[in-house]
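[audit] Reproducing an earlier prediction to check determinism. Same input, same settings, fresh worker. If the tokens differ from the archived copy the diff job will pick it up downstream; this log only records the rerun itself.
[audit] input (247 residues):
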Amino acid sequence: MRLITKLSLILICLAFAQVIKAQDAIVYDFRLDEKALNDAKNPIPAEIRNSPLFGKTINIFGASRARNKLQEMTDTWHCMVAKKYHMLYRNYARNNCCIAFDRRSERWSAPISEFYEDMDSCDYILLIGGHSDAEQINKGKGTVPEFEEGFVKLIRGFIKKAPGAKLAVMTPWKITTPPYPDITRIMIEQCHNFAVPVYDCTTQSGIYVWEMDFTKVYFQNYQDNTHLSKKGHKLFMNKGEKFLLGL
């Protein structure tokens, strides 16, 4: 019995280690080396070289919407932007992760407000969130005021951790069922309070989660109101790119 217990504990520890490893930042280094930077035969277009994004480092935070659920991370609009501008891209997003609510009891993740400090230094921080928090509230596992408290804690934490980085936030898509409107309102109001640029995806994104014909093409499945497909990311890339260029 003791041997079985020990083996069980070892297996549990191994499983836990795999989860932790899977939750580490995924990194893509699209920066150019000295030879490529000065290659006269393949010059870098001026609009790329002169961009504020060129060669910089971006850290991405969020849940499965930012991590791209089970799809390739390189298919996300933000990773495509990083590749276009030869950036160092780090994605700290975790599936089913919340900004404010702890999901470790469900074998998921601590809230972003508790692990953001583990990030490496960067030039840009992009938080894409709100969906997982809204779902936790819908399940009765959190409240709107608790979300606001956690969101403010995270914004303050980002500013303290990386005061020189350009911080930006993206709200959930346009979902009209509670508490999504409150989540979006809080994110916009608090970003304004901290002078943090915020992209209101309910009014600016052109992503129509309520149209089935749209979701069949641009989301990972027609019942999905969160995760864009590869075509969806390509569709949104232009708007997301302009937002980052304007920070």
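[audit] rerun output stored. Observation attached for the diff report: The mean pLDDT is 91.
[audit] end
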